[in-house]
């Protein structure tokens, strides 16, 4: 049969059925004990019921509200799916996606008071690698200037800040060789101290592009204590004199009406010097504190007064601990892993005591390769170490970021080394500058997604309402 004939046939059938709907009695036709019924035309056109029985129509406002709520629930599920499944998500205590809320609130209020982030780590963050990208992205989002705290004696050059000192001062470190230890726990917030016993000149200058926020600063602060004679500190012609005998750590601060890029400090006397802060009075400040060869288990050896004083006065609200890599080659048994994880838990709880307003986030080791049967392969115990550190951090109330999974998991280090240009070095342990930037960017993207979720849940401010 031709198509037009089929169409005519269908329309004819529909027309006949419509006529039957019109003429068929609404109460049906009785045939013996049976009643034959046929739907009316209105029932066919309105299968949900008659016009009188139909539910009341929604108002435009009610319809819009329902649609927005449906959309909102879909958005919420998308966020929660990311928090459950993404390789770059944060493992939060109790899987609570609101864990960052207090931190984000502080970030948003940093236009009126400075908020500090302290990034402790091993050699992966030397030279401001990783930290520099985190700092720039946070300062771009929330404001802030300056490179943060720097040591008086810089032994590893920064990619962002140049520095020199006219004398080699004796130093002590809370990590590294045992002969470098101090007789007391007076190491300061950088876990190192320089002993001033002469006259020195410290100069600082930028090494990076003009657009980066860490290039400029409006505040310089010298941290010192154990002042045995008058301490003289001069900056841009402004000379300060600190008398000996003070019990608390001294903060010799210089403010500039306009931001500067370079600074020279002259210091003379006898004192312990713990660092120089370069930042502003508001916005986000981010400290880079690398410790070559450190496993992160030395914080409990630092004078608690030094840490609590710094964390409180500098409004430290986030402490990043990037450790574990230096211990991986030596953790070959479950007992060894348990011992290391327990030690890290003690460090986290110690820092929590000194910085009760700060969130603590442990960044675990990356994938690391060793030669196994002639090929570069992941250290056999690395996954177990990471699992133990994640559980330990969450149990202590800290978050965990799994850099191993971020890279791609098992044997991903070999793939990062094979990239062109390489993202990791030939030792199959350390990132290249480009690889560090990749890791830091992924960290920031994940953190900002949690911030988006915070903003999504945050009630609309009165002044933002129409």
The CATH topology is given as Rossmann fold
CATH architecture: 3-Layer(aba) Sandwich
Number of strands: 21
**Secondary-structure content class:** alpha+beta
Oligomer state equals single chain
Query: What is the spatial order of strands in the main beta sheet?
Result: 3-21-18-17-4-16
Gyration radius, in Å = 33 Å
Helix content: 25-40%
Instruction: List low-confidence stretches.
Output: 50-54, 461-466
List the helices and strands and how they pair.
Blueprint: H1 3-23, E1 29-31, E2 34-36, H2 41-45, H3 60-85, E3 90-91, H4 101-108, E4 115-121, H5 131-142, E5 148-150, E6 161-165, E7 170-173, E8 192-196, E9 199-206, E10 217-225, E11 231-235, E12 238-242, E13 250-260, E14 263-268, E15 271-279, E16 284-290, H6 304-313, E17 316-322, H7 334-354, E18 359-363, E19 369-372, E20 375-378, H8 382-395, E21 399-401, H9 403-407, H10 412-418, H11 433-457
Helix pairs in contact: 5-11, 6-7, 7-8
Commentary on this structure:
The structure is a single chain. 33% of the residues lie in helices and 25% in strands. The protein has 466 residues and is of the alpha+beta class. The protein has a single domain, classed as SGNH hydrolase (Rossmann fold, 3-Layer(aba) Sandwich). The strands form five sheets. The protein has a six-stranded mixed sheet with strand order 3-21-18-17-4-16, sandwiched between helices. Strands 5, 7, 8, 10, 13 and 15 form a six-stranded antiparallel sheet that branches. Strands 6-9-14-11-12 form a five-stranded antiparallel sheet, with no helix packed on it. Strand 11 and strand 12 form a beta hairpin. The longest helix is centred in the first third of the chain and has 26 residues. The chain starts with a helix and ends in a 9-residue tail after the last helix.
